[in-house]
Design brief:
Blueprint (H helix, E strand, L loop, with lengths): L2 H15 L2 H10 L5 H32 L4 H25 L12 H4 L7 H4 L3 H23 L2 H30 L2 H12 L1 H13 L5 H29 L3 H21 L1
């Protein structure tokens, strides 16, 4: 595989991961959360990631494996990889306590609860930052692998992950800021959690590239599809609904699917 392709994939993953910093800035300077926009944006992210998983990554995996195995075998291997991806990210969710799990959605008001008894303030937000960092690691691997399949596939995914990283950046920066009184420390923690994504991409590059083969590449496409579907159903869609704008979140989902469909047709 060409070095330029790998470098582009790593660069795109950095962009997606460091968007947590945008969430930090919004948390500091916005007087109130724009829940209508956030609901639509999270729905759009879910639409993009679900569509690309079922209409591009998983079929692409089956097609590539079909050139090596029989039709049924190709489907079985692709589906096993798909559900393995779901299992890995679900296991991470299961191992992280619910109160500290950023994928257990919290409202904007909860994040801005400054009372001395607030869990996030008392714990100084460190566990929240750690939890988000753990979640971002496999997401970074997913972004990296999708970028290896082509920039036209990766760009919408990068945008989708960047959008859903914004509220995660808020989830880190707000409690740390109110626990320490330091915006610098809050921003630092937020950016460090975002670095978990390029770290995941770097590990994927170092571990997988020496053993790269068409079979591994095809299986990873299905694996990544599973991760993205789980994130969409477990985090993004419930998060979009959490803000109370059901129709806007559905419009976002449909718009995300349409954008991804158009992108795949054009490229």
């Amino acid at each position: 595989m060409e070095i330029n392709t790998i470098l582009v994939a790593l660069g795109l993953t950095c962009v997606a991961g460091l968007s947590t910093g945008i969430g930090s800035l919004l948390a500091f300077f916005a007087k109130a959360g724009n829940t209508r926009f956030l609901s639509c944006a999270l729905g759009l992210s879910a639409g993009v990631m679900t569509y690309v998983s079922f209409m591009d990554l998983l079929p692409g995996s089956i097609e590539e494996l079909g050139g090596i195995f029989t039709g049924k075998e190709a489907q079985v291997y692709a589906l096993l990889a798909f559900f393995a991806g779901i299992g890995v990210i679900a296991l991470i969710d299961f191992l992280i306590p619910e109160d500290e799990n950023p994928h257990e959605m919290h409202s904007y008001d909860e994040l801005n609860d400054h009372s001395p008894h607030n869990h996030h303030v008392k714990r100084a937000g460190v566990m929240v930052a750690l939890a988000i960092g753990i979640h971002n690691f496999p997401e970074g691997m997913a972004t990296f692998v999708s970028a290896l399949d082509g920039v036209e596939v990766a760009l919408p995914i990068v945008v989708a992950i960047a959008i859903h990283n914004i509220p995660e950046g808020m989830a880190v920066s707000v409690p740390i800021y109110y626990a320490t009184g330091s915006k610098v420390k809050a921003l630092r923690y937020s950016f460090l959690t975002g670095l978990a994504e390029p770290l995941g991409a770097a590990v994927a590059a170092l571990v997988l590239m020496p053993f790269w083969s068409p079979v591994i590449g095809a299986l990873l496409l299905a694996f990544v599809a599973g991760i993205m579907v789980y994130i969409s159903f477990d985090e993004l869609l419930p998060g979009a609904e959490q803000y109370g704008h059901h129709h806007l979140s559905i419009i976002g989902v449909i718009a995300g699917m349409a954008i991804m469909a158009g992108g795949l047709l054009l490229f």
